[in-house]
Amino acid sequence: MLSQRALVRRPSPDLAKGLLTHLARQPIDLALARQQARNYAETLNAAGWAVIEAPPADDSPDSVFIEDTLVAYSNLAVVTRPGAPERRREVPGAEVAVRALGYRTARILAPGTLDGGDVLKHDNLVWVGVGGRTNEAGFEQLAALLTPLGATVVPVELTKVLHLKSAVTALPDGTVIGYEPLVDDPGVFPRFLGVEEPEGAHVVLLNHNRLLMAASAPRTAQSFRDRGFEVLSVDISEFEKLEGCVTCLSVRLRGL
Ligand code: CIR
């Protein structure tokens, strides 16, 4: 069986200064955020994932959203070049952490930009949201790195949300789920299922029938339970205020 490891990073003391694109700024309770990050990690751990902490990047308010710094595929970890220049300081520590876990690495280079939150994978299909933090050059570089490994890398236009995975994620069978008002074109996905809450679009696959979701999507969680999934919910309110979601708080490593 492949290992299940998840890379996380502790919230920066400056979390409240995190970037906002679509939301208005709200006060952040840092102590609560730290508790929510611990609870998130403990939930992954209890579900069979070894949780590894990347070196802190406390000078970067958004560093807890570690998913944006890496894209893992097979034994390769692509080290991103985040679209927001303020976030590029987060990358070196993430690269160190993933190399220590045995991954070989490659980097997205200027003028390319790519955020991990724009990359949705299911088996060998890799959808990449282009038009927000990720640009055409970043997409082309990622495609050139992953195609030789057997991936089919597909660009998806993104205009309505911060990252592709703010709009859509995928169930274990590859059905893409999303809150339709925030999905540019559901028709680009071979199988698409609409959900009734914006946060209901975000699932982390813990295993073939277990999902991790935000507590802010109770009706969608129930609809997935009705379909036979076990759903674990975590409250990530402080991260949602900064346009983060349940996927972006870890990098799931299934490749080695
Ligand atoms: C940012 O704007 O970069 C952060 N405030 C939120 C990043 C969330 N990342 C993600 O959904 N993958």
Feature tags:
256 residues; alpha/beta; 3-stranded mixed beta sheet; 6 helices; 21% helix; globular; binds citrulline
Describe the structure.
The protein is α/β, with parallel strands linked by helices. It has 6 helices and 15 strands. It has helices spanning 30-46, 91-100, 136-146, 164-167, 218-226, 237-240, and strands at residues 5-8, 50-53, 70-73, 76-79, 104-107, 119-122, 125-130, 152-157, 168-170, 176-178, 192-194, 204-207, 210-214, 230-234, 251-253. The strands form 5 sheets. Strands 2-1-15 form a 3-stranded mixed β-sheet, with helices on one face. Strand 3 (70-73) and strand 4 (76-79) form a beta hairpin. It is globular and about 45 Å long. 49% of the residues are buried. The model has no long low-confidence stretch (mean pLDDT 97). Residues 18-19, 21, 62, 65, 67-68, 84, 87, 117, 162-163, 165-166, 242-245, 248 line the site of citrulline.
Give the SSE layout.
Blueprint: E1 5-8, H1 30-46, E2 50-53, E3 70-73, E4 76-79, H2 91-100, E5 104-107, E6 119-122, E7 125-130, H3 136-146, E8 152-157, H4 164-167, E9 168-170, E10 176-178, E11 192-194, E12 204-207, E13 210-214, H5 218-226, E14 230-234, H6 237-240, E15 251-253
Parallel strand pairs: 1-2, 4-5, 7-8, 10-11, 13-14
Antiparallel strand pairs: 1-15, 3-4, 6-7, 9-10, 12-13
The protein binds citrulline.
Global morphology: globular
How far is the N terminus from the C terminus? 10 Å
- Secondary-structure content class: alpha/beta
The amount of beta strand, in percent, is 15-25%
- Please provide the count of β strands: 15
Largest β-sheet summary: 3 strands, mixed
Give the topology string: H per helix, E per strand: EHEEEHEEEHEHEEEEEHEHE
Ligand names = citrulline
Question: Major sheet: order of its strands?
Answer: 2-1-15
What is the rounded Rg?
17 Å
Helix content: 10-25%
The low-pLDDT segments are none
What value does the average pLDDT take? 97
The number of distinct helices, counting runs of at least 4 residues, comes to 6
